[in-house]
Every structure is written in structure tokens, then in C-alpha cells.
Design goal:
By secondary structure, the chain is mostly helical. It has one helix and no strands.
């Protein structure tokens, strides 16, 4: 035996379905926003990592140049001392 649902019951379930569809759409939009935000954060993290790598390379290059400059200064001082000793011996 089959009993037809009342008009009120059908309207109630139609409203509930519409409500759930709206909630679903809202949740999908929020999820999409979170995904976009996550992708942007990931992109920024990659850029930060790249900048940190560049900074490390530049710091190493600066350190190497400072060592080179120190050695060159030592060489110049040795040459000045050698030059002075030649002048004295003349």
C-alpha cells in the first residue's frame, strides 16, 4: 500500500533540499577560497626560499671577497715592506 505524501511534507523537503544546496554551494565557495589562499601561501613560501638561497649565495660571495681582500692587503703590506727595504739598501 502506497500513501501519497502531503503537500506540506513535499514543500518541507523541497525547502530542506534547497537549504542544503545553498549550504553546499557556500561550503564549495569557502573551500575554493581556502584553496586559492593555500596556493598563494605556497607561492610566497617558494619565493621566500628562493630569496633565502640567493641571500646565502651572496653572503658566501661577500665572505670570499673579504678573504681575497684581506690576502691582497697582506700582499700590499709585504710589497711596501720589501720596497722600504730596497730603499734603505740603496
Amino acid at each position: 500500500m502506497y500513501v501519497r505524501p502531503s503537500r506540506q511534507l513535499l514543500d518541507f523537503y523541497r525547502k530542506k533540499i534547497a537549504q542544503y544546496e545553498n549550504e553546499h554551494d557556500t561550503q564549495v565557495k569557502k573551500l575554493s577560497e581556502y584553496k586559492k589562499s593555500h596556493e598563494e601561501q605556497h607561492q610566497l613560501d617558494c619565493e621566500v626560499k628562493q630569496r633565502e638561497d640567493e641571500i646565502a649565495e651572496l653572503q658566501k660571495a661577500l665572505s670570499d671577497m673579504q678573504v681575497f681582500l684581506f690576502k691582497e692587503r697582506e700582499q700590499v703590506l709585504k710589497l711596501y715592506a720589501e720596497n722600504d727595504s730596497f730603499k734603505v739598501s740603496e
